[in-house]
Design a protein that fits this description.
Blueprint (H helix, E strand, L loop, with lengths): L14 H4 L7 H5 L13 H8 L5 E10 L3 E3 L9 E3 L4 E8 L4 E6 L2 E6 L3 E3 L15
Antiparallel strand pairs: 1-4, 1-7, 2-3, 4-5, 5-6
Amino acid sequence: MSYFKLYLSPKQKHLIAERYMYEYDKEKIEKGKEEPIKENTTTSDTKKDEEKPTITFKDQTDTVLTITNTPFYEDYNKDTNGNIEKDTKIERIGISNDNVWSKLKYNNKIIYVKTENLKLFVEEIIDPNENNDSE
């Protein structure tokens, strides 16, 4: 016997607010598969997708040096893929419009590094014809 009553614990503060947020694919339910429709869920995967910022890069070609052991990312929205040793010389091919991220070409891959971990590489050119002796 069912009276169609649902009892909620006061400890479940967000349950009432979330009860209508989930919608299920009716065709899949008829086939025995209960699967929420992605755009109406609040799963951690959906939240991660929503939190990913869109970053635009402008072209900037120069050579930079890492100033610390620097974490690098193959996707700036994901976890680090490793570290680049301090004082590594790398070709920069772009920088984000807010200057937070630098786009680098490293070991034939495109990677991303926080710009704050880089400094511009300036090669000192010595003119052999210049006399530096003081008399």
